[in-house]
Amino acid sequence: MSKPVKQVHLGAAFPGVNSHTVWSDPRSGSQIDFSSFRHLAQTAERGKFDLFFLAEGLRLREHRGKIFDLDVVGRPDTLTVLNALAAVTDHIGLAGTVNATFNEPFELARQFATLDHLSGGRAAWNVVTSSDAFTGENFRRGGFLAHADRYTRAAEFVDVARKLWDSWEADAVVADAGAGVFVRDGAIAEVRHQGPQFDITAHPTVPRSPQGHTVLIQAGNSSDGREFAAATADAIYTIHAELKAGQTFYADVKDRLAKYGRAREDLKILPQATFVLGDTEAEARERARHIRLQQVTPQGAIAHVEQVWGRDLSGYDPDGPLPDLEPLTEGVNITRDRARHHHDPLAVARRWREVAEAKKLSIRELVIELTGRYAFTGTPARVAADINAYVQGDACDGFIISGHLTPTGLDEFVDTVVPELQERGAFRTEYEGTTLRDHLGLAPAPHRGVAA
Question: Is residue 449 part of a domain?
């Protein structure tokens, strides 16, 4: 008996900055104007995607004591954008990345419950954490968490949010022809929570939303992150995209679910990926090479290497070899916020030199090699076949896809790759449910009550 075809789940990510988008292309639009968000979300909905995914940026990066100008595009408030998109879309899920370190459960639970109501059950929260004191300077309590404590706070945060979402019974709001709309007596529980991170007593102001609980996404690949996802999340946004690495990650996370009383289908694994299409394989490869050269500019490549070396390397040729001097190891703060490297700079430099020497790469070519997200490259039929192979081969349950242009980068994928997936019977031709949980094949969120 043949194995049933698994359905591919797809999310559309709004393109970021730096080496993730070609902001210099004349076709590139604004990353803050609402029309850009609307275009991408409506294009993804036209393609029957599960969700639209919006990242979060809480502080502009600084490099060598100045705002890093290649990173300045603006990042409006996530929830404001998603609430606006709820009014101009009908089906697609609306997922927002919001930090659990710098927010409070009552406020965030209320905001996501509101989005779920306004969208008719399409809200998702990508739970992220931070131990970054630089970003924390924007907030009253600052970057007060040790790196190891991030998930401790996040787990308690989610626990409190769920209690708040469960404080209203499903039929708490009653419509009465004579008296109007009122709340049934005893249908709202008081939420009392005392823990290491939060101590609150509350009567939430928003009724239980269409999904009950907002869909929870977790972005993290560490062992702690995987365990947090297995215990808490409905989906994981991950960077594992190579087939073998994806299969290993998939098996590891899915195997953790049983101890929390969860089934394997209760958690979807969605790696990030991009794509480059062409009429032929050769054309797609050449187009991919050209795009990467646009994404990683000469000055961007030098700045990337400076993050590890901790030195001013502006005198070096980006098309030349890596510096022959060693990185500084103490008292270095050349890049603030979103620096990519937290490990021993000498070890990182040694590994980079090995890669550069083995592949005969210049500084810029090396940075292109190191910073590229996984890209499906080829004809539409080839890309659809490759995506389907990952899902059927248990390397993931689908992908969070982004293009290289804002906001039209997804158009070509929707017009050419999605029909190929539909022909294979691996992707929906119409939405069959109304909520994001329906799209992802997740069970309705149970009402757990509010016991401490």
Answer: no
Closest CA to 440 of 237, 295, 258: 237
Q: Is residue 450 part of a domain?
A: no
Please tell me whether 151 is known to bind a ligand. yes
- 3-state secondary structure (DSSP) of residue 127: strand
For 203, other C-beta atoms within 10 Å of its C-beta total 11
Asked whether residue 2 is domain-assigned, the answer is: no
| Same domain? 391 vs 347 | no
Tell which of 317, 352, 371 closes a domain: 371
pTM attached to this predicted model? 0.90
Count CB neighbours of 108 within 10 A: 22
437 contacts 121 by C-beta, under 8 angstroms: yes
Q: Tell me, what's the pLDDT at 449?
A: 67
Q: Is residue 341 annotated as involved in ligand binding? A: no
Exposed (0-12), middle (13-18) or buried (19+): which is 343, by Cβ within 10 Å? exposed
- Report the chain's mean pLDDT, rounded to a whole number: 88
Domain boundary among 345, 371, 397: 371
Q: Is 362 annotated as a binding residue?
A: no
Q: Rounded to 5 degrees, what are φ and ψ at 115?
A: -60, -40
pLDDT surpassing 70 at residue 179? no
For residue 90, give the H/E element and its range. none
Task: Please check whether residues 345 and 432 belong to one and the same domain.
Answer: no
3-state helix, strand, coil in the chain (%, to 5): 40, 15, 45
The reply to whether 446 falls in a domain is: no
Residue type at 121?
Answer: G
Q: Which two tokens stand for residue 435?
A: 């909520």
Does 101 count as an annotated binding residue?
A: no
Q: Residues 357, 208: one domain?
A: no
Condensed to tens digits (0 to 9), the pLDDT of residues 286-326 reads 999 999 988 888 988 998 899 889 888 999 999 999 999 99
User: CB of 332 within 8 A of CB of 310?
Assistant: yes
Residues 99 and 151 in one domain: yes
